[in-house]
Amino acid sequence: MGLTARPDSALSRVEYDPQSQDGWVTTRLDFLVNWGRANSLWPMPFGTACCAIEFMATAAADFDLARFGMERMSFSPRQADVLICAGRVPFKLAPIIRRIWQQMAQPKWSIAMGACASTGNMFDTYAVVQGIDTIIPVDVYVPGCPPRPEGLLYGIQMLQKKVMNERMSDRTIREEMEPDPTTQLYIPPPAIDEISEPFGNSINQTRSTP
Amino acid sequence: MTDQPESFDIVSVGRALVDAAPPVTPRNVLHRGGDANPSADALKQQFGDAIIRSAVGWGETTVFVARAHVGEIIRWLHDDPAQQYDYLVDVTAVEYREAENPIEVVWHLRSLPYRRFLRIKTELKKGSPLEVDSVWGVYHGADWLERECYDMFGITFTGHPDLRRILMWEQYKEGYPLRKDFPLRGRFSRSEQLRQALAANPESRYSMEELTVAEAFTEIPDDMRRRLASGERTGE
């Protein structure tokens, strides 16, 4: 047997008819952009505790974050789209996660993975931030201690759904959070005290009503 | 069967334990008493009244020493050829729930050649300044251990080269978290805690010296060397 010549004669003779309707797709620009963004969210993993282990399991072969276009972990905030805070954040880390969030370029989203990142969990102590939403805005909260990979994937799908519903005409969703220059807080102190207040468990609610 | 109690009574169980043989480990080490570490007697001979008392629990010897003599006692334990405590396991402190009890500072020492373990304790009376000698001159490994002890209990180790907070950030103002009078959630409101935490510069936690390779010191520019020598911090 010998090698035969490649039948490339057809390739070189592709003819393009400007009047033809073949090969054209019309869509909304919103949809196209959102579709691209939602399916290539590059995560910035901010793993501080045991949730990071579940996050690694989510990224590994069994659960395979690559199915969502997220296999590229971005350890530089400049190239990241979604900050995934996996684990408790002590007060000492508060300026660091704030700075990482500010270094991320728009468009950007954030996921609070697990009970500690969302609320402080049982660490109602002098050292732990009572929910990272007191420091940075949060798009999706994933409950669990730690959440199973399915839980995180569900949260990611919720975020994708949120991204798909964005409108380019709505400029407010791209507005940067500007912290108050004197206090560096972006929500008023009474609101922080309110959401940081312990409120018991599912049976015993001790939270005061405003 | 008639003399069995009808229900489980924790008090009678407790009485049974009093009459039972005292607890021992599988290797027959007694809970209280037993052979003391020979270093305890050697310390008593060497330092006399500076050694307050010693006790043996689970085969481990604890020696209570006077606060003023901690430095020389640990130096002697390290240097004396018959002791050779060459490994500092831990430096920590204990505050008891009973407010009248003094705060104890604890050193765990190990002598690798003689295979001995010794626990040194000293008592710091509350109300008096919480100061004790640093053992950094004997064991450089005490550096971070003493910083942690200072951070959590507010005990000042005189002679430590760089005594500042290590776990909490350096500008932390709420006090010493492991003290019994420290409330679990801290002294300030959550918003105030967050405000102070966010005001901290995340890059000013290291001294320039720590960030510098010591061998490169002679090669760096003059002004940088001057700033290093004056103890300036980075990231300002």
Relative helix content of chain B: 25-40%
Low-confidence stretches of chain A: none
Strand content of chain A: 5-15%
Oligomer: heterodimer
The largest sheet of chain A is:
4 strands, parallel
Structural class of chain B: alpha/beta
| Largest interface, C-beta within 8 A | A-B, 25 and 24 residues
* Amino- and carboxy-terminal Cα gap of chain A: 86 Å
Order of helices and strands of chain B: HHEEHEEEEHEHH
- CATH class of the domain at 43-169 in chain A, named Alpha Beta
Mean pLDDT of chain B: 83
Per CATH, the architecture of the domain at 43-169 in chain A is 3-Layer(aba) Sandwich
Radius of gyration of chain A: 23 Å
The helix tally of chain B amounts to 6
CATH-defined topology of the domain at 25-167 in chain B: Beta Polymerase, domain 2
Describe the structure in your own words.
The complex is a heterodimer of chains A (210) and B (236). Helix content of chain A is 30%, strand content 9%. Chain A has 210 residues and is α/β, with parallel strands linked by helices. Chain A has a domain at 43-169: Rossmann fold, CATH 3.40.50. A four-stranded parallel beta sheet of chain A has the order 1-2-3-4. In chain A, strand 3 (109-113), helix 5 (114-119) and strand 4 form a beta-alpha-beta unit. Chain A is elongated, with a radius of gyration of 23 Å. With 236 residues, chain B is of the alpha/beta class. Chain B has helices at residues 10-19, 38-47, 70-79, 142-153, 190-199, 222-229, and strands at 51-57, 60-65, 87-94, 103-111, 116-124, 131-133, 156-158. In chain B, the strands form two sheets. Chain B has a five-stranded mixed beta sheet. Chain B contains six helices and seven strands, in the order ααββαββββαβαα. Chain B has a domain at 25-167: Beta Polymerase, domain 2 (2-Layer Sandwich), CATH 3.30.460. Chain B is 25% helix and 19% strand. The radius of gyration of chain B is 24 Å and the shape is globular. The A-B interface holds A 91-92, 94-96, 98-99, 124-127, 129-130, 134-135, 179, 183-185, 189-190, 192-193, 196-197 and B 167-169, 174, 177, 182-186, 189-202.
